């Protein structure tokens, strides 16, 4: 199916569901006060309706039940020890028990339903992020077998090196997976398909890639105290820009004058903007920039140097070097210490990924949520970057074939379809938004953020290392125009290499 057709279907679905933002184009949405209706265990697929409009729940084109004879579908996922007790550790694949945590329990119920319906068992193994590659390489070399992992998630940062071992397969060819369905993230499909081949994909099955989406938080009381009352209106009116953000930050001014007055701007002071190097990349995407876009022929094109991006990034670099901008990386403090600064009233704006919304349960300040600002109002669309540092996306090892591949496709389709209603509802509506039940606008922001996610092939395939250069622009006071000139040959040969690698052999 052509990409425009996929887009069209996606749009039609959005309209059909009364404007609800879908996981493919975003995430599920339920009006405030709705009870949880999407959890798998309490939903009869024949009669159930979407929580938004009462429209019938979209069903996957696979048998509703099947007997796979107790076969297991095994997921191998990356793991980083220092993030052990955070939501960055996979919590969306499998869980042993009900714990009354909404996301955990939605995963438990989903898997139980699918395991019963298809007579399979779903397992997950977490391994150190460097080991995913070794394990899958060995598996593919030996050729599958009883202990094979049917699904794997390397971290995105390691993915470019990982998949060049020729160890994952083209998801577009996997039986029983229908990528036109909204539970497969259409933006990820459009951007990560190269010459018709899709080696990894984002799906409603996961919440961790939603957690990895960039956004801003703001301290509501601090904003009010400074007469800043129209932030949400600006977002809604499509007027939320880097320039207006800079205007507010300028008004807050010198951190030390607002803080302890010891003559040094430090962690004890009140900062207009608590940021880090990642602001470079997320604002680059926010202003509409992209390292690469897919061209007509299905090949990525190096687009970082378009004139508007070049102009906008001058402003972003300037912003990141203003005295009111606190840079967590330059301050060389831990992430938790940095987050704590915002939680304890040391900043007006705070750059974050959505996982912070869950992590900041103990915040002493009440905060609102905003999308990454646009360059100008003419842009008319917000863009929210998805981090390559904190997540992986779904891949299927190359040795999985025949009946096992049939089963893998069917189980993934069933899991993703159910998650689109059950898990995503538990995550977005009941978990993320619950804390802000008094703040309707933050919910709107969450919908905006989750429906405007950017999967940049330049970053996901690490084309010529340019993603790192973007990340360094702000802290190094770099110029995008100069970097593009410097890197054009490098990025273009990386694209050529990627295309040759993925093109079917003649
Ligand atoms: Ca297996
Ligand atoms: Ca001070």
Strand order across the largest sheet: 8-5-9-4-10
Sheet having the most strands: 5 strands, mixed
**What name is given to the CATH topology of the largest domain?**
D-Maltodextrin-Binding Protein, domain 2
Mean of residue pLDDT values: 88
Distance between the termini: 23 Å
> Which kinds of small molecule does this entry bind, naming each only once?
calcium ion
User: What is the CATH-assigned architecture of the largest domain?
Assistant: 3-Layer(aba) Sandwich
DSSP strand content: 5-15%
How many structural domains can be distinguished in the coordinates?
Answer: 2
Roughly how many Å is the radius of gyration? 22 Å
Give the total of beta strands: 12
How does this structure look, described?
This protein has 20 helices and 12 strands. The protein is α/β, with parallel strands linked by helices and 506 residues long. The protein has 2 domains: 3-211 and 392-432, D-Maltodextrin-Binding Protein, domain 2; 214-385 and 453-502, Periplasmic binding protein-like II (D-Maltodextrin-Binding Protein, domain 2, 3-Layer(aba) Sandwich). A 5-stranded mixed beta sheet has the order 8-5-9-4-10, with helices on both faces. Strands 2-1-3 form a 3-stranded parallel beta sheet. Strands 6-7 form a two-stranded antiparallel sheet. β6 and β7 form a beta hairpin. Residues 1-47 have low confidence and may be disordered. Bound molecules: calcium ion (CA) (2 copies). One calcium ion is lined by residues 256, 259-260, 262, 264-266, 268-269.
Task: Record keyword descriptors for this entry.
2 domains; disordered N terminus; three-stranded parallel sheet; binds calcium ion; alpha/beta; five-stranded mixed sheet; D-Maltodextrin-Binding Protein, domain 2; 506 residues; globular
């Amino acid at each position: 199916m052509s990409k425009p057709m996929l887009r069209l279907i996606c749009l039609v679905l959005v309209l059909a569901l009364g404007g609800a933002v879908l996981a493919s184009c975003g995430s599920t949405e339920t009006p405030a006060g709705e009870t949880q209706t999407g959890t798998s265990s309490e939903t009869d697929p024949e009669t159930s309706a979407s929580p938004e409009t009462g429209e019938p729940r979209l069903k996957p084109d696979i048998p509703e039940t099947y007997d796979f004879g107790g076969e297991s579908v095994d997921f191998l996922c990356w793991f980083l020890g220092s993030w052990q007790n955070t939501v960055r550790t996979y919590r969306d694949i499998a869980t042993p028990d009900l714990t009354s945590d909404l996301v955990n329990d939605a995963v438990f119920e989903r898997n139980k339903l699918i395991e019963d319906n298809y007579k399979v068992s779903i397992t997950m193994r977490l391994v150190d992020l460097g080991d995913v590659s070794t394990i899958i390489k060995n598996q593919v070399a030996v050729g599958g077998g009883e202990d094979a992992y049917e699904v794997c998630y390397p971290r995105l940062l390691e993915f470019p090196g990982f998949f060049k071992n020729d160890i994952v397969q083209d998801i577009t060819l996997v039986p029983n997976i229908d990528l036109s369905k909204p539970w497969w993230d259409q933006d990820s499909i459009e951007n990560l398909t190269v010459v018709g081949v899709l080696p990894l994909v984002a799906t409603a099955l996961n919440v961790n890639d939603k957690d990895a989406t960039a956004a801003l938080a703001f301290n509501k009381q601090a904003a009010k105290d400074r007469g800043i009352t129209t932030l949400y209106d600006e977002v809604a009116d499509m007027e939320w820009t880097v320039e207006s953000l800079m205007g507010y930050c300028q008004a807050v001014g010198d951190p030390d004058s607002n803080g302890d007055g010891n003559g040094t701007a430090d962690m004890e002071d009140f900062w207009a903007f608590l940021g880090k190097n990642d602001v470079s990349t997320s604002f680059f995407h926010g202003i509409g920039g992209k390292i690469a876009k897919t061209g007509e022929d299905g090949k990525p094109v190096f687009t970082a140097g378009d004139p508007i991006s070049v102009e906008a990034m001058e402003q972003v670099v300037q912003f990141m070097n203003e005295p009111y901008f606190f840079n967590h990386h330059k301050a060389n403090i831990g992430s938790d210490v940095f987050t704590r600064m915002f939680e304890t009233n040391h900043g007006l704006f705070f750059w974050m990924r959505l996982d912070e919304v869950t992590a900041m349960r103990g915040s002493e300040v009440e905060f609102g949520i905003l999308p990454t600002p646009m360059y100008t109002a003419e842009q008319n669309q917000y863009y929210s970057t998805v981090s390559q540092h904190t997540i992986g996306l779904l891949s299927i090892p190359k040795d999985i074939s025949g009946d096992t591949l049939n089963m893998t496709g069917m189980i993934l389709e069933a899991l993703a379809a159910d998650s689109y209603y059950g898990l995503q509802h538990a995550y977005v509506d009941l978990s993320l938004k619950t804390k802000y039940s008094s703040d309707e606008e933050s919910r709107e922001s969450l919908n905006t953020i989750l429906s405007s996610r950017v999967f940049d092939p330049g970053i996901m395939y690490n084309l010529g290392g340019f993603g790192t250069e973007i990340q360094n622009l702000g802290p190094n006071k770099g110029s995008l125009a100069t970097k593009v000139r410097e890197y054009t040959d490098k990025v273009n040969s990386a694209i050529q290499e990627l295309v040759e690698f993925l093109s079917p052999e003649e």
